[in-house]
Description:
The chain is of the alpha/beta class. Helix content is 63%, strand content 9%. It is built from 16 helices and nine strands. The model is unreliable at 162-174 and 607-617 (pLDDT under 50).
Amino acid sequence: xxxxxxxxxxxxxxxxxxxxxxxxxxxxxxxxxxxxxxxxxxxxxxxxxxxxxxxxxxxxxxxxxxxxxxxxxxxxxxxxxxxxxxxxxxxxxxxxxxxxxxxxxxxxxxxxxxxxxxxxxxxxxxxxxxxxxxxxxxxxxxxxxxxxxxxxxxxxxxxxxxxxxxxxxxxxxxxxxxxxxxxxxxxxxxxxxxxxxxxxxxxxxxxxxxxxxxxxxxxxxxxxxxxxxxxxxxxxxxxxxxxxxxxxxxxxxxxxxxxxxxxxxxxxxxxxxxxxxxxxxxxxxxxxxxxxxxxxxxxxxxxxxxxxxxxxxxxxxxxxxxxxxxxxxxxxxxxxxxxxxxxxxxxxxxxxxxxxxxxxxxxxxxxxxxxxxxxxxxxxxxxxxxxxxxxxxxxxxxxxxxxxxxxxxxxxxxxxxxxxxxxxxxxxxxxxxxxxxxxxxxxxxxxxxxxxxxxxxxxxxxxxxxxxxxxxxxxxxxxxxxxxxxxxxxxxxxxxxxxxxxxxxxxxxxxxxxxxxxxxxxxxxxxxxxxxxxxxxxxxxxxxxxxxxxxxxxxxxxxxxxxxxxxxxxxxxxxxxxxxxxxxxxxxxxxxxxxxxxxxxxxxxxxxxxxxxxxxx
Length: 617
């Protein structure tokens, strides 16, 4: 009957070895040896003062375990069959001094015989233990039929938490086939006991809850019913058996079969006998199922974690760097478009602003010229005016060039700002200064031809004006009987001649002023055309210089980014290939684990909860 489950257990052992888990392999081997052992090892656990020791004594009808001696139970007590009553303290010997570290050593158990009246001291850890030794327990042998059939009872120190139970289980000489959790009838199952049961069910499929001390509580049946409800609500498939050790021992002393039946022990002993008879089949199959679940869960956990880690690395590893490199290429392309547009727009604005600025300055100069020559005579003020005009034009050209220099520097920084994300200075190594010969570049001012009012012109103009006046008034005086040329007509002619000279002089002044204004207007226009041409040429040179500099910089960045992109792509391809291969290996291992688990679950034909072998999303 052991063939099927033993084959599954051996397959589990081979799976542990294939995954390199020597610890799990050692556990499976121990479970294999335990299941092949014909004895039924019963582990009795529970919180302190629940009647565990008295329960064992009542099962075998003998005072094997100390009860009520006031001493703290420190060591587990193993009660097995012997031809004569015996007692000993068994202790695991420490590894030999030359034993290699990290390898499993065969445990050597040393037994120190103790007197039967010293069992209580041995359980309290006061006698029989050697300093520096390993875990110890008290072993008691008694000639009892139940023990002789192959039942071994293990009494553990009282504990009220899961960790304490784990320590007691480790201290026991072997893992249990059946676990009895003892809880008295004075109260319902506590949260700690339910948690302990949930923990036990993960490694011990065969668990019985023994409700002790029914003789002390009148409504123990109500407590038992509530405890069954608690077990069902907690999802613990454990049988609950109410018992009374006091009634059992009294029945044994008086040979009272009715009292013995009332104690509840016949049901408990029958359960132990069924477990003993079915160990090689039913219990073994359930145990293999539990081992399979535990082993598969522990083997699948690191595989799931590795898959999850690979998915995380896919987002932060070479693939992430490849995506980052692709984003850098796209960003550089956008950056190239931005800086070229910025340079073109800024240079266009600069040329328009320079022309407007110089035009405004020359207009102010021309307004000053108009205001000056509305009253001034060019014959008198020309030398002073020529010096002022030349100085004003030079100042306008210098101011315009100064603004050109400032704007070009600002444009260079504005274009360079598009490369700020690359983390270094990208300004070109250049400097633009004011030209020293700006005054020599100005067009030469030609002195305009100005008409002068000569003496002869004045005499001719005066004679022409006086003749008309004298003739007009001379004709008028002849009517009065006076000659045409008389003192009155001569005087009037002199006045008309002076007026003609003054009027001609004013007209010549206005013509001179208009001639000078026109000449200066042409000169300023020539100045504007020459200076604005120089500014345009300078701005275009700056534009070409910045264009060439940032084009070269863009090409350098593009070459570096493309090289990084190629390297990241190659690395990503290699990493993706290795990761895909590793994922196939992991999924193959998970498939094999699922097959082992399914094979173990088919031992009993019962539907069990599926294992989560894939990583959670």
